[in-house]
Amino acid sequence: MSQSDNLLEEICAYISRGKHSKKRCVLLYIATDKADVDEFHTKCDAQGPTVTILYGKFNSIFGGYTSKNWTSPETPCKVKDEEAFLFTKYDNPYEKCRFIPIKKKKEDIAITCGAKFGPTFGGGPWVRGYDLKVFKRDTKPESVYTDQFLHLNGSLNINNAYSDSTNQKFSIKSEDINYGKLIVRKLEGEKYDTTKRNLIDMKPLHGLNIKQYNILLVGPTGAGKSSFINTLSTVFTGKFEKIAPARDGSIYITSKVRPYPIITENKEKLNLRIYDIRGFEEGRGYGKELELLLDGRLPQNYQFPDEVGSNVIDEVKDPSLNEKIHLVCMVEAESCFDSYTPKILEHIEDIKKTISTKGLPLVVIATKLEMRCTHISKNVDHLFKCSKAKEAVSDIAEFYGVKKSHVFPVVNYISESGPVTAKNQLALKSIYDMYKLTEEYFTHHEGTVLFDYKSCL
Ligand SMILES: Nc1nc2c(ncn2[C@@H]2O[C@H](COP(=O)(O)OP(=O)(O)O)[C@@H](O)[C@H]2O)c(=O)[nH]1
Ligand SMILES: [Mg+2]
Question: Of 251, 316, 319, 330, which is most buried with the most CB atoms under 10 A?
Answer without folding.
Answer: 330
